[in-house]
């Protein structure tokens, strides 16, 4: 081992005094390196800040564009009240239908044996994610319209779906289903299968095991999926426009009302937009707290 003037017996190598900078408390401080400003962390933070500002500034502008008094006054308008009431009613019904039919399917896909055509079913469940809302609305119209594949049979029974409040529910359920089913499937997949097997060996049947063991254990994931599905249904626009129309009090949800009134009354449009943003942030906060409890 070569002797170095900057090494001392029994100690680690020391830097030359010329390369050390004294800190205010008398300790040694690492030398300043101009390349630090181009470090990976600095670049990540800079680019991330740009994206965060890009997402935050439009939302901030919404809240700054109307005073509290104008906001409250806009909420009292008939078109706003009708849109708010219709959106919440139809989205809750759509969520109920998605949970009712989606929960058993998610459990079957997560825990059951593979069946013929499962890959096709799983692909169909992801269609709402990759299908543009306008395409979804047109597809619903072709399926459930008076001359549609299913609409002809419904017409024989005196049922007409397009351009009705029921059509709003159908469009919202179509768009929100993928969010719930995928989340519910992951939740059921995370349930310990050994516990379910033990429950059955102790005499609990499949229904009792599902209701008293698997469902409670998967509940946080189910709630998260339901929240995302409800938010998607509440903000649905394109499919509702094409399949249900835009009639105040009948099919005009909040997104459609925003599109309709923004040219005549910007305060009303901003008020409804703020309501949707507040609901969205509330759901995100709920999911965050839920994630903390699950961790």
Structural description of this entry:
By secondary structure, the protein is mostly helical. Helices cover 69% and strands 1% of the residues. It has helices at 40-64, 68-75, 78-111, 118-125, 127-130, 133-144, 151-156, 165-189, 193-201, 206-234, 238-243, 254-261, 266-294; strands spanning 21-22, 28-29. The protein has a two-stranded antiparallel ribbon. The radius of gyration is 28 Å and the shape is globular.
What's the arrangement of secondary structure elements?
Blueprint: E1 21-22, E2 28-29, H1 40-64, H2 68-75, H3 78-111, H4 118-125, H5 127-130, H6 133-144, H7 151-156, H8 165-189, H9 193-201, H10 206-234, H11 238-243, H12 254-261, H13 266-294
Short description:
With 295 residues, the protein is mostly helical. It has 13 helices and 2 strands; from the N terminus they run ββααααααααααααα. A hairpin with a 5-residue loop joins β1 and β2 (28-29).
User: What amount of the residues lies in strands?
Assistant: under 5%
Widest sheet: strand ordering: 1-2
Q: What is the residue-averaged pLDDT?
A: 84
**Radius of gyration, CA atoms, in whole angstroms:** 28 Å
Name the overall outline: globular
Query: How many strands, what sense, and barrel or not for the largest sheet?
Result: 2 strands, antiparallel
The structure class reads: mainly alpha
């Amino acid at each position: 081992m070569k002797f170095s003037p900057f090494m001392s017996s029994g100690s680690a190598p020391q830097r030359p005094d010329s390369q050390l900078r004294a800190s205010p408390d008398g300790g040694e401080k690492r030398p300043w390196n101009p390349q630090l400003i181009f470090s990976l962390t600095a670049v990540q933070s800079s680019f991330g800040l740009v994206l965060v500002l890009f997402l935050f500034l439009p939302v901030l502008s919404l809240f700054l564009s109307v005073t509290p008094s104008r906001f409250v006054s806009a909420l009292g308008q008939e078109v706003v009240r009708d849109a708010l009431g219709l959106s919440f009613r139809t989205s809750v019904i759509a969520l109920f239908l998605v949970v009712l039919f989606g929960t058993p399917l998610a459990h079957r896909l997560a825990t059951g044996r593979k069946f013929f055509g499962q890959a096709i079913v799983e692909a169909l469940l992801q269609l709402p994610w990759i299908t543009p809302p306008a395409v979804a609305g047109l597809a619903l119209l072709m399926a459930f319209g008076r001359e549609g594949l299913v609409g002809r049979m419904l017409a024989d029974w005196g049922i007409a779906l397009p351009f009705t409040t029921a059509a709003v529910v159908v469009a919202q359920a179509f768009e929100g289903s993928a969010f719930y089913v995928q989340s519910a499937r992951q939740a059921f997949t995370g349930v310990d299968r050994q516990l379910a097997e033990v429950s059955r060996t102790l005499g609990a049947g499949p229904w009792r095991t599902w209701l008293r063991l698997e469902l409670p254990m998967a509940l946080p994931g189910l709630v998260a999926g339901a929240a995302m599905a409800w938010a998607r249904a509440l903000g649905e626009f394109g499919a509702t426009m094409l399949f249900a129309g835009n009639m105040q009090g009948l099919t005009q949800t909040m997104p459609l009302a925003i599109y309709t009134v923004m040219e005549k009354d910007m305060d009303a449009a901003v008020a409804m937009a703020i309501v949707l943003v507040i609901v969205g942030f509330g759901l995100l906060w709920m999911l965050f707290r839920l994630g903390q409890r699950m961790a």
